[in-house]
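Example S7 (structure tokens).
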């Protein structure tokens, strides 16, 4: 299939590489050198302009937020062919994606939201989990394509459902991060060796992906690489809180987690990695790891 892939960031770059093993892939990236590099690394075709992506049978976007997706839709909607499938792998906003889908549907273009989880290691390995929101027949078409970079692919509901569950997933991880950081900091002040603390917690009922996989290499290993921007997780938690709000639910944990992540972002700045939220928790107490 002829696929246009838009957004070669930390996630999109390897995902488009996996697609190129099975499909003819044209890539476009805001910073053109990245698309140039992708073309020489994976044998993809660099689009001369964004408009060149309009004629593909399938258009895939993975950019920071639904706002950038909509800007791209604005530029392609009049040029895309009826029957095109648009797969938005961005961790976006379900309300925005439903409006985008309606706009595209009026031009006979099908839209599914298909955000992913598994991080950059999953994107590189081609083992992402993909959660698809959309009509059944569109989700089926999307599944066949997402199999290039996904291991577990689930059709979760109508348009927007993928974005909703992705936001909730990330918000749960974010809340785990804050409470784990507070607990571990308490243990550190009590004089615990952090390796011992992780060993015990990870054999107990308090363990989570955060304590098993994310924090040990940072807190014990001292390595704080940038893999997923804090600003993007802040956006995800805000979406999860607004999903709860839209259902008239009281969700104080989501609201507090969202407030704390926004504070962490303001404190640490745009360049920070999401796991540095643990540094923010330490900083609240004038401590460090
Ligand atoms: P990056 O910041 O690494 O990449 C963002 C991509 O979007 C880049 O290609 C960037 O282009 C492009 N972009 C940014 N602004 C615009 C714009 N205004 N117009 C067009 N293109 C633009 O982000 P990630 O790859 O980490 O994340 C992408 C999405 O995937 C986000 O929604 C994120 O929440 C989600 N996600 C991220 C995960 C991760 O672990 N990193 C895991 C799962 C989901 P340029 O190269 O020019 O900057």
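Recovered sequence:
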């Amino acid at each position: 299939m002829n696929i246009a892939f838009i957004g070669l960031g930390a996630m999109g770059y390897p995902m488009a590489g996996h697609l190129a093993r099975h499909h003819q892939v044209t890539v476009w990236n805001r910073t053109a050198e990245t698309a140039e590099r992708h073309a020489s690394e994976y044998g993809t075709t660099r689009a001369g302009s964004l408009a060149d992506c309009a004629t593909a049978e399938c258009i895939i976007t993975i950019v920071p937020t639904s706002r950038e997706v909509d800007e791209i839709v604005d530029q392609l909607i009049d040029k895309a062919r009826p029957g095109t499938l648009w797969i938005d792998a961005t961790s976006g906003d379900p309300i925005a994606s439903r409006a985008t889908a309606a706009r595209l549907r009026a031009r006979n273009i099908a839209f599914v939201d298909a955000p992913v989880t598994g991080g950059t290691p999953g994107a590189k390995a081609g083992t992402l989990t993909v959660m698809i929101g959309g009509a059944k027949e569109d989700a089926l078409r999307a599944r066949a394509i997402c199999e290039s970079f996904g291991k577990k692919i689930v059709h979760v509901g109508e348009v927007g459902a993928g974005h909703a569950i992705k936001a909730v997933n990330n918000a749960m991880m974010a809340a785990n991060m804050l409470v784990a950081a507070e607990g571990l900091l308490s243990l550190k002040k009590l004089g615990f060796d952090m390796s011992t603390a992780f060993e015990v917690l990870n054999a107990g009922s308090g363990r989570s992906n955060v304590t098993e996989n994310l924090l040990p290499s940072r807190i014990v290993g001292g390595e704080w690489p940038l893999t997923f921007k804090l600003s993007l997780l802040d956006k995800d938690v805000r979406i999860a809180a607004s999903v709860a709000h839209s259902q008239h639910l009281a969700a104080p944990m989501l609201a507090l987690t969202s407030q704390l992540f926004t504070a962490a972002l303001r404190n640490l700045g745009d360049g920070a990695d999401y796991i540095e939220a643990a540094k923010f928790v330490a900083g609240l107490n004038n401590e460090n790891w």
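Notes on this example. The two ends are 49 Å apart (CA to CA).
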